[in-house]
Amino acid sequence: MVNGQWSMKNVLHPIMFAGTGSDVGKSIVATAFCRIFSQDGYMPAPFKAQNMALNSYATPEGLEIGRAQAVQAEAAGIPCHTDMNPLLLKPQSDHTSQIVLHGKPIGNRDAYEYWNPHPSSLTPPVDFRKEVCDAFDRLASRYNPIVMEGAGSISELNLRSTDLVNLPMARHAKADVILVGDIDRGGVFASVYGSIMLQTPEDRKLIKGIIINKFRGDMRLFDDGRSMLEELCGVPVLGIIPYYKDICIEEEDSVSLERKRRQLAEGKLNIAVVLLRHISNFTDFDTLERDPRVNLFYTNNTSDISHADIIILPGTKQTSEDLIELRRNGCAQAIIRAHREGKTVVGICGGYQMLGQTVSDPDGIEGNIATLPGLGLLPIHTTMTREKTTRQVTFEFGGQECKGYEIHQGISDTDKVILRSGNCIGTYIHGFLDNPPVIEYLLNLNPNLNPNDNLNLEDNESFKEGQYDKLADHVRRHVDMERIYQILTDND
Predict the structure, then answer these.
(1) Rounded Cα distance, 492 and 476, in Å
(2) Which of 15, 208, 405, 451 has the fewest Cβ atoms nearer than 10 Å?
């Protein structure tokens, strides 16, 4: 260590944050370490061999990766790239996912087909393991260290032979594995001990430490627990990270939406995001949700939709199926009625397509229904296409330059980036609502908001940078960074 900083001459091993289960905080911990290593003078890069998520992002080259790796790259201070998430699975139903390889869709597969180690139905056949390992090798030649993220639980024994992302990937990378356990959900001793003991002797040696995440209360109460875990597992507990509520980092897993099913609130502008079965890119609303003038919540309750001041139809992986569901559950009628009563309606991406006159699918991209009527609030017709649009975009709004990105299948018969028709607005641009001029325009359309309430909100990029620093500080305080650096430089 030189002047409190670890020298770039220290080549660090790759580090993998693996989990005892889903939603234990692997993504957030990996994000924190991307920022910590960057602060300490390294050039880190994130990597997740295979991601299953509907929240995705367009790279500068116009290719698609999981949103979590884009966030981690941002925390590391580098542009995102498909090598950081070479394989992305986007669920289309309970059994089928679109496969995105190196940023481009290559087909749809059901779960059994996908896990078959000989995917002969793809032409030409694809060796996914080779593809993700090659992507890691390219990334590792440019950055140090690689901050790897596992997926779900590392102890799914039935998937061990086809696992591309957890310990088999760690073996290829020669990574030091840190096991993350969630104490908030209970059973942390069993989940940590079981996750380690169920590994093969070879893989067990890769696990160099344990991090206990989401601790609530007096941490001194876990002193004995820490010693017990270390004795049981033969692995050091490197940190106990307290639960936090005051740090805002974009989340990828849809389970986080369950915490956002709030209700109408007095004294604020109520914004209802319609909860679709195949909702995607719900991070589009994080900036708006932080606005103190706003109560933003997710719902498919027709009464809440009717009483909201603004209604947003978000993106979806299955426009046609969710459009049918909106009619079935009464939300479509509630949205049309609210629009007729003067409420503002906004559609993003798939939601934009639904607000049009028709959605046509002549090639059966999403199903076997050739044409569906839309909600009829915007003068557009959409046709589903096999080619996917993925790109970063800049646009002008209110005389200011704004930015976002597009990820969608289907084209609409208008050349307008943003389409406005009365009190209805539609756009394909994700990140549309991250731009202050857009937020101010949207909120001031509503008569319940006093124009004098306009706030000089911190721009989104500055806000996110501050949050990454807060997260890094929080994690630094509660993990043994000196021990971690020793592990990452130990040649034994």
Answers:
(1) 25
(2) 451
Please give the helix or strand (H or E) that residue 487 lies within, else none.
Answer: helix 481-489
Rounded to 10°, the helix 67-76/26-39 angle is 20
CB 441 within 8 A of CB 361: no
Among 306, 308, 315, which Cα is nearest to 352's? Answer: 315
Per-residue HEC secondary structure of 265-322 comes to: CCCCEEEEEECCCCEECHHHHHHHHHCCCEEEEEECCHHHHHHCCEEEECEECCHHHH
Q: Is the pLDDT of residue 423 over 90?
A: yes
Query: Is the torsion defined by CA of 247, 251, 257, 258 positive or negative?
Result: negative
Q: Which residues are known catalytic residues?
A: 349, 430
Q: Beta-carbon neighbour count of residue 446 at 10 Å?
A: 17
Interstrand relation of 279-280 and 176-182 (parallel, antiparallel or unpaired): unpaired
Q: How far is CA 367 from CA 92, 108, 139, 322, 363, in A?
A: 11, 12, 37, 12, 9
Rounded Cα distance, 23 and 43, in Å: 27
Residue 114 tokens read as 């996908």
Q: pTM of this prediction? A: 0.87
Rounded CA gap, 365 and 89, in Å?
16
Is the distance from CB of 273 to CB of 312 less than 8 angstroms?
yes
CA distance 279 to 288: 17
* Residue type at 477 in one-letter notation: R
Question: pLDDT band for position 114 (50/70/90)?
Answer: low
Q: What DSSP line would sit under 320-337, residue for residue?
A: HHHHHHHHHTTHHHHHHH
CB 75 within 8 A of CB 34: yes
- Give the H or E element holding residue 210: strand 207-215
List of residues 6+ apart from 459 with CB closer than 8 A: 436
Residue 452: per-residue pLDDT: 53
Tell me the average pLDDT across 407-435: 94
* Residue 80 in tokens: 């995102």
Cross-sheet strand order for the sheet of 87-91: 50-52, 87-91, 96-101, 104-110
The pLDDT value recorded for residue 32 is: 98
Strand order in the sheet with 358-360: 371-373, 358-360, 381-397, 400-412
Query: Which amino acid is residue 40, in one-letter code?
Result: D
**Residue with tokens 């990766």, as numbered in its chain:** 65
Counting Cα atoms < 13 Å in the Cβ hemisphere of 104 gives 4
CA pseudo-torsion sign 322, 327, 329, 334: positive
